[in-house]
Amino acid sequence: MSKKILIIIPAYNEEKNILKTINNIKEYKKIKLDYIVINDGSSDGTRDVLKQSDINFIDLPFNLGIGAAVQTGYRYAYYNGYDIAVQFDGDGQHDINYIDKIVDPIISGDADMVIGSRFIDDTSSFKSTKARQFGINVISGLIKLCSGKKIKDVTSGYRAVNKKIIEVFSNNYPFDFPEPITNYALLKNNFKIKEVGVNMYERVGGQSSISYLKSIYYMFNVCLSIVILNYKKFGGRK
Amino acid sequence: MLSIKLQIFLTVVTILYFIIVLRAVRKEKMPIKSSVLWFLFGILMIVFILFPKVLVDFASIVGIKTISNLVLFAGVMCLLILSFDLYRIYNMEKKKNIALAQEIGIIKNELSKKK
Q1: Distance of CA B44 to the CA centre of its chain
Q2: What is the architecture of the domain spanning A5-229?
Q3: Min CA distance, B90 vs chain A (Å)?
C-alpha cells in the first residue's frame, strides 16, 4: 500500500521563489506527493502569486513566525490523515530530487524521522557560513552530551516524519528554533532519527531568517532551551 | 509614625482606590472572582494606615531598618509577582491566538476547495 505523503512548504515573502519551488515539486514523478503551502501573512505578493497559479495553500490571517507556520502544516497533515509529512523550504534551498532518500527509511520503518543533512557524505556543495557551522557544531555537541546520540545537521529544515510524529507536532511544536529543539525532544522520547545526505542550494533570493549576529544569539538560546527541555513534557494529543 | 494629616490623605487615596475597583466590577470589566485580590489589597492598606505599628514591628522582625524600605520592598515584590503573572497569562493567550489563526487558515483552505 502506498503511503500518503504531504510536503509542507512555509512561505513568508517568497513571491520570487515560491512558484519555482512548487513547479519543481509538481514535475517530480518518482513518488506521488501532495503539497501544502503555508502563506505566513506575507506582506509582499506571495498570496496573489499562489492564488493566480491555483496552488493548494493555507492563508494565515497574520504573520505567526516560522514555527507556528510549519505547525499549521502538521495540523493539516493530521486532520487529513497523512502518513508522512516532509518539511520543505519555500525559498529554493532544498532539492526535491532527494525526497525519496528522505522518505524511504520512514516507509520501511527504519526511522520515525529523517533529517536531510548537508554534512553527510559530501552530497551538498553548499555548507553554510563558518560562523553558522560553528554554532551548529556546538548545538550538535550539546545534544550528543545530553542524549548520547549524534545529529550532525541539527538545524536542517528538510526533514520527514511519520504519522506518530505528525500527531505530536500538530499538538506540540515550539515556535522558536523548532528544528534543533524538536530533534532533541524526539531523541529524548525514544523516537528513531536518521540522517541522510542531501544536496542544498544557496538561497536564490530573499533573506535568510538568521543573520550573522543573530546566529550567536540563536546558538545560546537553543542551548538553553535544550537544557531546560530536560524538565519539560513533550507528547501527543490526549 | 504617621501624622494625622498623612493618615487622612492616605485614607482618601485608598477610598478612591476602592471606588475604582468597585466601578470596574459593577461594569463587568473585572470578574468578581479576581476582584477579591484587589479588595484584599485595599483592606491591607487601610489596616496599615490605621495601625502603622504593625508595619514597624514586622520590619524589625525581618531585619529591615526603616519602614519606608519595607513598604518599598513589598511594593516592588507585588509588582514583580503581578507582572510575572500577566506575562504568564499573555503567553497562554498568545498560544491560543496562534492555534485559532492556524485553524482559520485550514478552514479557509477547505472552503476554497469546496467552491
Answers
A1: 13
A2: Alpha-Beta Complex (3.90)
A3: 15
DSSP H/E element including A49: helix A46-52
- Tell me whether strands A159-161 and A113-117 are parallel, antiparallel or unpaired: antiparallel
The per-residue pLDDT for B55 is 86
Question: Do A232 and A190 meet the contact criterion of CB atoms below 8 Å apart?
Answer: no
- The structural domains of chain A, with segments of one domain joined by +, span 5-229
pTM: 0.83
- Using alpha carbons, select from A150, A157, A162 the residue that is nearest to residue A95: A157
* pLDDT higher than 80, residue A7: yes
Residue A11 has pLDDT above 70, yes or no: yes
Q: Return the sign of the alpha-carbon dihedral for residues B55, B60, B66, B71.
A: negative
| pLDDT confidence of residue A204 | 56
How close A196 gets to chain B, by Cα (Å)?
31
Tell me which residue of A204, A200, A18, A32 sits closest to A115, measured CA to CA.
A200
Best of A12, A72, A82 to substitute, by most chain B Cβ atoms within 10 angstroms, is A72
DSSP for residue A203: P
Radius of gyration of chain B (CA): 23
Q: How far apart are CA A60 and CA A69, in angstroms?
A: 8
Strand order in the sheet with A159-161: A57-59, A34-39, A5-11, A84-87, A159-161, A113-117, A193-197
The pLDDT > 90 percentage for chain A reads: 60
Which chain B residue shows the shortest CA-CA distance from A74?
Answer: B102
Task: Name the DSSP letter for residue A201.
Answer: P
pLDDT 10s digits, B22-67: 999 998 888 888 888 889 989 988 998 888 888 888 888 999 888 8
pLDDT of A208 over the 70 cut: no
Contact A33, A104 (CB under 8 A): no
Q: Is the pLDDT of residue A207 over 80?
A: no
> Are A167 and A87 spatial neighbours (Cβ–Cβ below 8 Å)?
no
User: How high is the ipTM of this complex?
Assistant: 0.86
Q: In Å, how far is A175's CA from the nearest CA of chain B? A: 9
